[in-house]
Structure formats: C-alpha cells, structure tokens
Amino acid sequence: MFLAAGDPASAAAALDRADGFLDTHGQRYAEGLLLRARTLAAAGEPAPVVRAAADRARRLSAERGAHLFADRAAVFLAAPLVPGAPGRRAWCSYARPVS
Fold it and tell me: I need a surface site. Which of 19, 70, 75, 89 has the fewest CB within 10 A?
C-alpha cells in the first residue's frame, strides 16, 4: 500500500518489520523479496542496487521452489529502466508483456 501511495520510505520500514517477523518465526514468503526490489526502485536507488535485489528474489524463489515468484522477478528484471528516473522500471506489473 505504501509503495502504491508513493511512500517508499514507509514501504521499506514495513518490509523491515516483516523481515523481522519472518526471522523470528522461521517462515519464508518469496513475494517480499521482489517487493524489496520494487521499493528500492521507487526510492530511486541506482539500477545495480535494484537489479541485485531483484536477482536475489529470482534466485531464492527458484531455490525454494516458488516458481511463480521467480518468474515475476525475471519479468521485473527484463523490463527497461525509465529514462531520467534512476533505478525505476518502466513496466512492473505481474502480467507478462505482449510481444
């Protein structure tokens, strides 16, 4: 919600809290990994930082057998950067682009 509202700082704080609960209870959910990459992109982080987070999401999701999330991360990685907006992706939806 915070990310959709244009508040990446609050989104990052919420993800940090969620990570703490995941670590405490030992449960893992792959979607949070890609949300971290999206949050970094929305905050204007450099493209290599965003790409590293998205690649980590793709790799860990695949290792955990969460193929849907690995595919979403791969689609995110394939999207072009928005000119003039460092780290932001032009297309970040869950749907596949139409060729």
Answer: 19
Q: What is the pLDDT of residues 33-70, one digit of tens each?
A: 888 888 888 888 888 998 999 999 899 889 888 888 89
Q: What's the token pair of residue 90?
A: 């032009």
Report the number of secondary-structure helices (H) and strands (E) in the chain.
Answer: 4, 0
CB distance 44 to 78 below 8 Å:
no
| Token digits of residue 58 | 């793709």
**Contact status, residue 73 vs residue 33, Cβ threshold 8 Å:** yes
From 39, 20, 22, select the one nearest 30 (Cα to Cα): 22
Domain residue extents for the chain:
8-78
96 vs 72: CA distance, rounded Å: 9
Name, in order, each residue with C-beta under 8 angstroms of 86's C-beta and a sequence gap of 6 or more: 44, 45, 46, 47
- Yes or no: say if 76 and 87 are a contact pair by the CB < 8 Å rule: no
Cα–Cα nearest to 77, from 64, 87, 65, 66: 87
